[in-house]
Amino acid sequence: MSATETFTMYSTTWCPFCNRLRQDIADAGLDYTEIDVDDDVAAGEIVKGINQGNRVVPTLVFADGSSLTNPSIHEVKDKLAATSA
């Protein structure tokens, strides 16, 4: 994660929850990295490790190592505000 990226979103192209959050993040103008778990087996394993063995997307991982699974944009913004304070 670079200095301008605030989190990593693990997702898929076909997931409606990912598509909704992707659009909300774009509308909010947030910088992030996105990794498609269908294209990256290791990323899928990271997601399963976070979600008790389940490959649940979207899963977001923040610079401090914390994560959110299927969050709303409000939860993302709140988390970013808390970690930057």
TrEMBL record:
<dbReference type="InterPro" id="IPR036249">
    <property type="entry name" value="Thioredoxin-like_sf"/>
</dbReference>
<protein>
    <submittedName>
        <fullName>Mycoredoxin</fullName>
    </submittedName>
</protein>
<dbReference type="Pfam" id="PF00462">
    <property type="entry name" value="Glutaredoxin"/>
</dbReference>
<dbReference type="GO" id="GO:0045454">
    <property type="term" value="P:cell redox homeostasis"/>
</dbReference>
<dbReference type="InterPro" id="IPR011915">
    <property type="entry name" value="GlrX_actino"/>
</dbReference>
<feature type="domain" description="Glutaredoxin">
    <location>
        <begin position="8"/>
        <end position="62"/>
    </location>
</feature>
<dbReference type="InterPro" id="IPR051548">
    <property type="entry name" value="Grx-like_ET"/>
</dbReference>
<dbReference type="InterPro" id="IPR002109">
    <property type="entry name" value="Glutaredoxin"/>
</dbReference>
<dbReference type="GO" id="GO:0009055">
    <property type="term" value="F:electron transfer activity"/>
</dbReference>
